[in-house]
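Hey, quick one: can you model this chain's 3D structure?
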Amino acid sequence: MSVKKKLSILRNVLIFTAIAWFLVTFLIVPVLSTVKTTFFTDGAFSMQSVQKLLSSERVKRSLSNTYKMAFWSFVTVTINGVFQVLVTEYFDIKGSKLLELAFMTPLLYGGISLVTGYTNAGAAALFLSEEVNRICKLTGFPPLWVCGVRNWGCRICVF
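Sure thing. Here's the predicted structure for all 159 residues.
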């Protein structure tokens, strides 16, 4: 086997290991911990929490509303997606490229929410901010662009 092939296999193994670690750490362990806390009270299996939930009229109504919302969200997203594809790609409409950009703006909202949450969590004191500031100092870039400023009880980013 060539060195290039061995490196490719090693890279694949490392990627698989990282993904597996992420799944176990952030998905499987929290779910199992929640299940254990919910169903094993005082070291014994108990369905008491489920019985309490199912006996509540508010919970039944909430579950019903959740299922209705999931169904109608699926329907409306499908209709909207088909409409967007037809308008921007299938039909020859003037301004379809501009309309396509307008339809893509919701893709930005996840990033905006992430930055806002990170900043409100105290960006200046977090590990990532410290590392970016250290790199900024090494490159000569102003390091203060990462930190936040206290304003009305929340943090806003300074650019």
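One thing worth noting: Residues 148-159 have pLDDT under 50 and may be disordered.
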